[in-house]
Design brief:
Distance between the termini: 50 Å
Largest sheet: 6 strands, antiparallel
Shape: globular
Number of helices: 1
Strand order of the largest sheet: 8-5-10-4-3-11
């Protein structure tokens, strides 16, 4: 298969010697763009740099309530870990659209124009995506028996670069 003038074989790249035009193998310790799958304490915001991550694994391994892993100029991705019986908290983002994707657990979502009136109220499970238009009030509540693991994409970014909230404020 040809792509941008380079030929890519089906053989893993780590079998080839280092070439200055090709990236280092992601398991090499000096590669700054590799997600540290075995050490959740070193998760950080890689924003404004090219970055490849297994988002499902990163979301499941995250232990913080909210953790920004990529904050760019026009988009942000955060990981969330909502404890049993807790919620995100009723919030709205006046100028930011949001996508929340449930990786593990069970929740209940509310979305509406006012804090006390909701157009959408329904249970959500692993594999469900929640789209929240800018300006809509919303909340996600963990109604399951295990932590609710999800990632959230904001466009444009909503939290400061490098945000890590160990517990809900």
């Amino acid at each position: 298969m040809y792509y941008n003038g380079y030929y890519y074989a089906q053989t893993p790249m780590q079998q080839y010697p280092y070439h200055p035009m090709m990236p280092q193998h992601p398991m090499q310790p000096n590669n700054p763009w590799h997600w540290p799958h075995d050490d959740s304490t070193s998760m950080r915001d890689y924003g404004r740099h090219p970055y490849v991550v297994n988002l499902r694994n990163a979301t499941i391994q995250n232990q913080a309530f909210r953790r920004a892993i990529w904050t760019g100029k026009h988009l942000q991705t955060t990981l969330m870990n909502i404890r049993v019986g807790e919620d995100i908290g009723m919030e709205r983002h006046p100028a930011t659209d949001q996508l929340l994707y449930i990786e593990e657990g069970q929740g209940f979502v509310r979305i509406g124009d006012r804090r006390d009136y909701f157009e959408v109220e329904r249970a959500v499970n692993a594999g469900d995506a929640i789209f929240v238009p800018a300006g809509k009030w919303h909340n996600v509540i963990n109604i399951g028996r295990q932590p609710l693991k999800l990632f959230s994409i904001y466009a444009p970014p909503d939290h400061p670069f490098g945000t890590v909230e160990k517990r809900k404020k």
